Amino acid sequence: MAVAEVSLEHLFRVFTMPEGKDSKLAQIEQHLSDNLADFLSQHVVTKVTSLEQIEQSFAEFNVPEHPEFVSEHAANLLEKLVANSVNTYSPTFIGHMTSALPYFHLSLAKLLVGLNQNLVKIETSKAFTPLERQVLGMMHELVYAQDSEFYNTYLHSANHALGAFCSGGTIANVTALWVARNKALAADGVFKGVAREGLAAGLAYYGYKKMAILSSRRGHYSLSKSVDLLGLGREQLITLDCPTQRLSPEKALAFGKQYAEQGNKILSIVGVAGTTETGHVDPLDELADVAAELDCHFHVDAAWGGATLFSSTHRNILKGIQRADSVTIDAHKQMYVPMGAGMVLFKDPNDSNAVRHHANYILRAGSKDLGATTLEGSRNGMAMMVYASLHIFGRLGYELLIDQSIEKAKIFARMIQSHPDFELITHPTLSLLTYRVNPQEVQLQVKAQPSLSPEFNEKLDKLTVYVQKQQREAGKSFVSRTRLQTQTYGDQTLTVFRVVLANPLTTEKDLQNILDEQIAIASKSVNWAQLTEKSTL
């Protein structure tokens, strides 16, 4: 193997002059541009390779002493990295909230990297800053629908922000709750505010023993990170049972009043618009009433479901979201933008000032530097990708994508229900659903004798795990799995398949093939034989 030259001349060429059109990197780039799906099908290898085997390719811990030619390194990436990646573009990859992307993002990604803007400040982003503010304004209008005077006043105001871009839903949720905490324990002339004096001083000054965040058990794990980071303590993330997969306003109000009577304060109720596990939407309008009665912040985590607002047919599922103080939306989910495009939106443009920071060399007072009100500092201009998608798809294009995903989920649910050996566990509200393999013989026995349910469910859990693992390792298709409780089975926790139908390339034939494969795997397993034997229980 040839060794690259160690010289300023060589390094200068790396910065300025791409290798020839016949180089490996150039070939990769051309193949990606010509036919992304074909590139992935050729290079992402569907074979059983354990994580331990892959780790062997990344076991060297010393920084390489000598430089490597770009083409040689590109060939190594194909072999070690690309071949062992996940083909999220595949129409049969329906297990997670990651999907195929429109082709134009490949070229835009190259432009984004080439420009290498840093959105922390105007001096390193210039046009990207007003572009990002415009995108936040567009998404704010989608949620809150304020009049033109409102947006003319606040869209590019140096003293306000309609929201913040961030790397994803986790940072968006943390930012929303950070704002809520600083507002709840704000300066008042005597007290300097929690941002200056700290949480203990804030709680003492306002007379609270503890402060909590309230959600259903379907709330995202980022909420647990939030209470940790904000100093509230993980035990102050209060999650209520949700057998219907939705947070009960009555339970939330009852707990909130009880918590307050004990000398505590509910900082925020978090309603979920599209839960990660089942895609359900909390009763947002009613929860807004509860938040008002408890005098607390109302945050809606719409990382998944927020894009439903593009659909005139289905947007009413999110009724009440416009009453939220803050909303999280991930463009890298149902807006089909590459990873790293989360947003938090604030109903009140003044709210961002609760976390405003300044520094002498950057983020100067009165500037329009975006970093003054964002948790993250240096970050790229992902807003450009959202900007492009909003224009290339338009609202009507997004409406079509959202509508077909929800319809496809309903079709798949009907396919599951019509098959004697499957059981639909949660019906789709948006484009997520859960189900499991459940032999007809078992379903009939449990119907006749419900007391057998717990023991059968234990065996069905093992069957579900087995089928999901075998299907994943076979590499033809992928569904994920989770554990949850439902109204049907009371306090029994079930292991189920979890499916996300967002890829517009997924067909009904693909879905039928996935079911056929699951039954084929299940029927050959020991678990199936044990379940279907008359003497099982």
From TrEMBL:
Please give the SUPFAM superfamilies that the UniProt record associates with this protein.
PLP-dependent transferases (SSF53383)
What keywords does the record list, in alphabetical order? Decarboxylase, Lyase, Pyridoxal phosphate
Checking Gene3D superfamilies in the record gives: Aspartate Aminotransferase, domain 1 (3.90.1150.10), Type I PLP-dependent aspartate aminotransferase-like (Major domain) (3.40.640.10)
The source's domain of life comes to Bacteria
Show the InterPro entries listed in the entry: Asp_decarboxylase_pyridox (IPR022517), PyrdxlP-dep_de-COase (IPR002129), PyrdxlP-dep_Trfase (IPR015424), PyrdxlP-dep_Trfase_major (IPR015421), PyrdxlP-dep_Trfase_small (IPR015422)
GO CC entries: cytoplasm
Cofactors, names only: pyridoxal 5'-phosphate
GO terms, biological process: carboxylic acid metabolic process
Q: What is its EC number?
A: 4.1.1.15
Determine if Signal is one of this entry's keywords.
no
Calcium: is it a keyword of this entry? no
On this chain, the residues bearing N6-(pyridoxal phosphate)lysine are K333
Q: Give the record's family classification.
A: Belongs to the group II decarboxylase family.
**Protein known as:** Glutamate decarboxylase
Q: Which organism is it from?
A: Paraglaciecola polaris LMG 21857
